[in-house]
Design goal:
- It is built from twelve helices and 15 strands.
- By secondary structure, it is of the alpha/beta class.
- Helix 12 links the parallel strand 13 and strand 14.
- Helix 4 runs parallel beside helix 5, helix 7 packs across helix 9 and helix 7 packs parallel to helix 10.
- The protein is globular.
């Protein structure tokens, strides 16, 4: 078997590796020529794929990258793994997926499987991809070629559940399409879960991320209330988590980041309006989560006031700019919004992140803490992303003021210089 993975980013490259390690030949189709060069040289630019492992697959002839869609012609399956961002008006932007589908259609042959893995609204596979593929190839979806949707479930940096070990949901246009998708994915992945239609698979991914978005929003709203009531929200959450049933632990924070949770709920809200339905619960969660960076900046302002200082002119050190701990992913990171807001208030902002060396949009580079000796030179240290490599005990000892949005300083004695979310 030979497959094509279209898009070698955070989703596509790890998926290509899983197939290759199972002995399947993979051709990666990537629009960025420099990425193709990196892959073909065995150099990984994705944290979840080591260069050593990639080089091994390349040397065995199991992975090759190209910009040419003609390479898909002799493949048994084509898997589309491209970003589906929101437009400036927070509407679904399928431009990359549609463009790739049009290019793929010109090389589609009878009997091939096409699978979309990009997160999207229910109906995309059937109503958007199928007509493009049929028009460009002269073939009929579900008759001449197979078509399915199988949502990616990548959680960057995670080691307990990976692309290989996380159950894979698959929904085909027809039962035969689903069966073919199971034949393709089955040998490479530990567990494949068939569902009846692409729409079920598309909605499944949205539900997973909306579930997290709504529950995080609940915790964020409670955090703001507990702040006003002078109750420690982190202690409340830990106490509630001792209940062995009926409660699932979620944590508040400075906002949502990553490639899914800040974006996916809006896909369903947009589609729902087509059916004269307003997803008020989902949209309210989005509003709460979008407001968290503003609330965090306001809390930092209050903390500085206790030192007779203001945000305007304050020297601040932001710790952690990736969207979550121990990865280098900046997509939708709330830290970027926090930095933007702090600068708008006139603050002088530095940052330190062992995973992200620079932020070109801010013309900033990660500062060397010189074994934390530089900490004392800042008016406040702001913990936005709690990377495990940082020594928070020393940070608390050295800093005049710490404002902790991630509860990274839990259990560390302080001299009243720590403020928490």
């Amino acid at each position: 078997m030979k497959i094509a993975v279209i898009g070698l980013g955070y989703v596509g490259l790890p998926l290509a590796m899983v197939f290759a390690e199972a002995g399947t030949e993979v051709v990666g189709v990537e629009a960025v020529a420099e990425r193709c060069d990196e892959v073909n040289a065995g150099r990984s630019y994705i944290q979840d794929v080591t260069s050593e492992a990639l080089k091994k697959m390349v040397d065995k002839g199991l992975i090759h990258a190209t910009t040419d869609y003609a390479a898909t012609e002799d493949c048994d399956a084509d898997i589309i793994c491209l970003p589906t961002p929101l437009s400036a008006n927070r509407e679904p932007d399928l431009t990359l997926v549609k463009d790739a589908t049009e290019k793929l259609a010109g090389h589609l042959r009878r009997g091939q499987l096409v699978t979309l893995e990009s997160t999207t609204y229910p109906g995309t596979t059937r109503d958007e991809l199928a007509p493009i593929l049929e028009a460009g190839s002269g073939l009929v979806a579900g008759v001449d070629f197979h078509l399915a949707f199988s949502p990616e479930r990548v959680d960057p940096g995670r080691t307990d559940y990976t692309t290989k070990t996380t159950p894979k949901v698959v929904g085909g246009l027809t039962p035969a399409c689903t069966a073919r998708a199971l034949e393709v994915y089955g040998p490479a992945l530990d567990h494949v879960v068939p569902v009846s239609t692409p729409e079920v698979a598309e909605m499944t991914k949205l539900l997973e991320n909306i579930f997290r978005s709504v529950n995080i929003a609940l915790m964020n709203e409670l955090a703001m209330l507990c702040d006003r009531m002078k109750v420690d929200v982190w202690e409340v959450i830990d106490a509630a988590a001792t209940k062995p049933f009926g409660f699932m632990k979620f944590q508040p924070g400075p906002g949502l980041g990553g490639h899914c949770i800040p974006v996916d709920p809006f896909y369903l809200s947009w589609k729902a309006r087509e059916f004269d339905f307003w997803t008020e619960f989902i949209e309210l969660a989005g509003k709460v989560n979008e407001n968290m960076p503003y609330f965090c900046v306001e809390k930092l302002h209050r903390a500085l006031n206790t030192r007779q200082k203001s945000l305007n002119g304050a020297r601040l050190l932001v710790l952690g700019v990736a969207y979550k701990a121990d990865i280098d992913d900046l997509r939708e990171s709330p830290a970027l919004k926090v930095i933007r807001l702090l600068r708008a208030h006139g603050a002088d902002v530095d940052y330190h992140d062992p995973y992200c060396a620079e932020l070109p949009e801010f013309d900033l580079k990660s500062v060397d803490l010189e074994e934390y000796r530089r900490i004392a030179g800042y008016d406040a240290v702001v913990i936005v992303t709690a990377h495990s490599a940082l020594d928070y005990r020393t940070i608390v000892q050295e800093a005049d003021l710490v404002v902790d949005f991630r509860n990274a300083t839990a259990g560390i004695p302080s001299a009243g210089n720590v403020w928490k979310l």
